[in-house]
Specification:
The chain is α+β, with helices and mostly antiparallel strands. The chain has 2 domains: about 30 residues, no CATH class; about 130 residues, Glutaredoxin, CATH 3.40.30. About 35% of the residues lie in helices and about 25% in strands. The strands form 3 sheets. The protein has a 5-stranded mixed sheet, covered by helices on one side. Strands 1-2-3 form a 3-stranded antiparallel sheet, with no helix packed on it. The longest helix has 24 residues. The protein is globular.
Length: about 210
């Protein structure tokens, strides 16, 4: 029978036993059962993914920044149909402030559902307000015609309105309640006609 030498040594995880069969160049370690380790690792990963999912769907999510929920929406001037206006003029309405650009493919993708959202909420006391950061007036005008944009929109080539809201990626949307407070920030394109969105806006429009 081959002679086996047994050693004990201290590691960062505690005392380990190792045996060295004579004439062989490998050790046998006493370890946690591999199956148990895999289960533990899988559980940790699943918990992490679930936590991320909760953050993404939570209305107050702002990619690691402090929540904007309940904070006053920054007022700004804009022009619609040649008439000077301000965001504050829309107080009493639910405003869907959408930052977009013609050169942004996701913005193009969500344009039809934003049109549909405008049709739904306008009679109920809400409005979509688009703010484009396009520098090219012709591209902007062509986009409005091509996609039959039916909601109010304003071109701000200086990007100062978007910068004031901390927006650097498009599209990005802020839902502002009737009292002029930010209720929700939404990053990226959305299906504004989904059941979840419809339920959310129905609730927001009923609030005083």
């Amino acid at each position: 029978m081959a002679e086996t030498k047994v050693f004990e040594f201290q590691s960062a995880r505690g005392l380990l036993n190792c045996s060295l069969p004579a004439g062989r160049n490998h050790y046998y370690y006493r370890r946690l059962d591999n199956g148990l380790k895999r289960k533990l690792e899988t559980g940790v990963v699943a918990a992490f993914i679930a936590a991320l999912a909760v953050l993404f769907v939570h209305p107050d999510y702002r990619q690691g920044e402090p929540s904007l929920h309940g904070s006053p929406a920054k007022d700004f001037p804009f022009t619609l149909d040649g008439k000077a206006s301000r965001l504050a003029d829309l107080r009493g309405k639910v405003v869907v402030l959408n930052f977009w650009a013609t050169w942004c493919p996701p913005c193009v993708d969500e344009a039809p559902s934003l049109n549909a959202l405008q049709q739904r909420i306008a009679p109920l006391g809400g409005t979509v307000l688009g703010v484009s950061v396009d520098e090219d007036q012709t591209a902007y005008d062509d986009f409005l015609k091509t996609y039959s944009i039916g909601f109010p929109t304003y071109r701000d080539p200086s990007k100062q309105i978007a910068i004031g809201y901390g927006t650097t990626m498009y599209p990005e949307t802020f839902v502002i309640d009737k009292r002029g407070r930010i209720d929700r920030k939404i990053v990226g394109p959305q299906d504004w006609t989904s059941a979840e969105m419809i339920a959310y806006f129905d609730s927001a429009l009923k609030e005083k």
